[in-house]
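Exercise 7b. Backbone tokens:
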């Protein structure tokens, strides 16, 4: 199954990058024109086996945003740039992670990789999720696609994320892992696209 999943990732990702290249270049130009800052935002995340790696994302926040607030963003967060609002809404900021897929650090479908700070809150049982290859999308991402808005209503967004949202995400990912195969991945990808275009 692992070989099939890796082959599926490459067969989808390499042609996908070629087809999407004009759109990716246009997004990069819009980000640069917005504030003349860096196009990409690279952040350390924890991958399979607890190994750290740097994730690729289109920058959707202001320069040095991680030094001006918490690691999570909530709805209406002033650190989100003008173009970043639309990139996040349409999930276009995630597209550069296709490069992480090509290098084998990520898969198209798998648990979203967390930053080290939040991984430190995992219980011993929750750390089993680190046995999985992280992905660009998963069932948890679909369920919590409006996570930023949800956190905006919390009096303590970080506590809500750690105690409520994060454990549920891990539960959904372990449930996925128990029956994971290429067909399941295709269903997750199609469901993700359906939710975005809606």
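Sequence design result:
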């Amino acid at each position: 199954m692992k070989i099939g999943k890796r082959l599926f990732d490459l067969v989808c990702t390499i042609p996908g990058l070629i087809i999407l290249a004009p759109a990716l270049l246009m997004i990069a130009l819009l980000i640069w024109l917005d504030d003349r800052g860096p196009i990409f935002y690279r952040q350390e995340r924890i991958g399979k086996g607890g190994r750290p790696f740097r994730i690729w994302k289109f920058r959707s926040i202001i320069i040095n945003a991680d030094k001006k607030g918490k690691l999570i963003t909530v709805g209406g967060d002033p650190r989100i740039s003008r173009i970043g609002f639309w990139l996040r809404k349409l999930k276009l900021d995630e597209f550069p992670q296709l490069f992480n897929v090509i290098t084998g650090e990520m898969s198209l479908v798998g648990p979203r990789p967390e930053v080290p700070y939040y991984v430190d809150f995992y219980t011993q049982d929750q750390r089993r999720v680190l046995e999985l290859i992280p992905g660009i999308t998963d069932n948890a991402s679909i369920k919590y696609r409006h996570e930023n808005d949800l956190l905006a209503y919390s009096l303590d967004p970080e506590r809500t994320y750690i105690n409520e949202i994060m454990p549920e995400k891990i539960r959904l990912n372990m449930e996925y892992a128990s029956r994971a195969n290429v067909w399941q991945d295709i269903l997750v990808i199609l469901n993700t696209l359906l939710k975005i275009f809606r």
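Instructor comment: The chain is about 50% helix and 10% strand. The helical segments are 2-35, 82-89, 98-102, 116-119, 139-143, 147-152, 157-177, 182-197.
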